[in-house]
Amino acid sequence: MSRVAIVGGGWAGIAAAVALADAGHDIAVFEMAPQLGGRARSVAGEPPYDNGQHILIGAYRDSLALMRRLGVDPEVVLRRLPLALPYPGEPGLQLPPGSPLIAFARGVLAHRGWPLPARLRLLVAAGGWLTRGFNCDVHLSVAELCAGLPATVKRDLIEPLCVAALNTPAPQASAQVFLRVLKDALFSGAGSADLLLPRRPLSELLAGPATAWLGERLRLGTRVQHIEPGWRVDGEAFDAIVLACTSVEAARLAAPIASDWATSAQSLSFEPIITVYLRSPGSALPAPMLALREGPDAPAQFVFDHGALGGAPGRFAFVVSGAAAWVARGGCAEAVLAQAQRELCWATPPVIDKVLTEKRATFACKPGLVRAPARIAPGLWVAGDYIKGPYPATLEGAVRAGRAAAQGAGADAARAANGAARGSPTNTP
Ligand SMILES: Cc1cc2nc3c(=O)[nH]c(=O)nc-3n(C[C@H](O)[C@H](O)[C@H](O)COP(=O)(O)OP(=O)(O)OC[C@H]3O[C@@H](n4cnc5c(N)ncnc54)[C@H](O)[C@@H]3O)c2cc1C
Question: For residues 397 and 348, is the Cβ–Cβ distance under 8 A?
């Protein structure tokens, strides 16, 4: 039996580990933190906080399949809602049930907040994207792609969707990746555009069940220091390695073996996300998720009512994506509190409960970005949300990268194990 090491236990590492074990390989997962989950983990609290509010969508096919494989029923741990972007006091865009493409057209036509010419211009633009197969010049930004759309449509739909999906503001975000997200949401079958909001703490979605499933194959609290061709992880022999750690750590580990690959991984820049939890006992929002209008003194783009989602009553998660300016400026939590007091109704005065700042939440998804490939050398593969592919940094991107790396590493490991049995190992760079 061939042995494969997986370095890193975020969603990419978990996906790679499960795929490799299911394919019959002997695996070991090295995770430097005391728990699995990476950026999609729970943080201590009663009940636990999420390390940032996460949203999945119906098109996250591989993530949902992975949850089921580990015995988690997505219908139980996630609340499925038809795509809607209500603002405080305004219904906003609401997609009716049915085929997502037709629902999108019907939802746009029924939008009462936009004048008819604005609705028609959005449908004409979307028709153009569809005709071109959701492809565009890779150097185009989302702001450039949507330059001809009315300001209200950009403000109420394009800009919040862009920052939610790509964690990059529209003027700096890749139009090609944005179109790919739209394509997946509108063309992956019924329910693909639905929002899936966690009802349970994030770790219960995947990391907790994966910990139990991996058992002794998991080495928590173990930061891998170096890898060597052949392959070795801190001196221990394997037939192949999947680097499923962050891009910074993967570049450090790979640098002595493949300096070009390491340079490419190191060239990524990052966008922060700040999550501000407010507490207000007895309060509830009119919907589990509301969009908010971002402005110079209004940092948050979305707010989630955890009580309405089956979590802690009176806990509200405000999300500040693309938060570089607020990290530099400071005072984000206080500005969110003031925004919440101005824009929403509260039964009791809200207070700041917890502030989580992830400075490297995701890579900045810029136009023309060249991302590092998944294969470094025979037997050395990489998985992570930043690896070359059509998706922005998302759970689904991480899971798909994990599965792809597992396939490559598994094939290389089997060849190496067979070669070793015949006396001629093959996995050298
Ligand atoms: C605040 C926030 C909000 C987000 N919201 C969403 C959302 O709504 N929807 C969505 O789809 N995505 C969202 N994302 C993105 C999503 O969380 C990531 O895309 C995904 O979790 C990345 O998984 P990964 O496995 O690629 O990387 P990571 O989760 O970073 O996992 C890497 C793992 O490697 C470990 N590691 C690093 N170095 C070593 C080493 N040397 N040895 C051993 N282990 C090591 C780390 O401890 C970590 O556990 C959000 C992210 C953040 C931070």
Answer: no
**Tokens encoding 76:** 């139980």
Same domain, yes or no, for 97 and 179?
yes
Cβ atoms within 10 Å, residue 74? 18
Q: What is the pTM of this model?
A: 0.96
- Domain tally, the chain: 3
CA of 396 relative to ligand 1 center, distance in Å: 11
Report whether residue 172 contacts ligand 1, using a CB cutoff of 6 Å. no
The total of other beta-carbon atoms located within 10 Å of residue 229's CB is: 16
Residues 164 and 95 in one domain: yes
pLDDT digits (tens, 9 = 90+) for 10-28: 999 999 999 999 999 999 9
Residues 124 and 41 in one domain: no
128 and 99: one domain? Answer: yes
Cα 248 to middle of ligand 1, angstroms: 12
Contact indicator for 136, 175 with CB cutoff of 8 Å:
yes
Q: Which amino acid is at 217?
A: R
The residue among 246, 233, 256 whose CA lies nearest residue 30 is: 233
Q: Ligand 1 atom closest to Cα of 52? A: 1
Task: Give start and end residues of each alpha helix (H) in 268-386.
Answer: 324-329, 332-343
For ligand 1, atom 15: residue with the closest CA:
394
In tens, the pLDDT along 343-374 reads 999 999 999 999 999 999 999 999 999 999 99
Q: Which of 166, 327, 354, 394 has the most ligand 1 atoms within 8 A of CB, as the residue to mutate?
A: 394
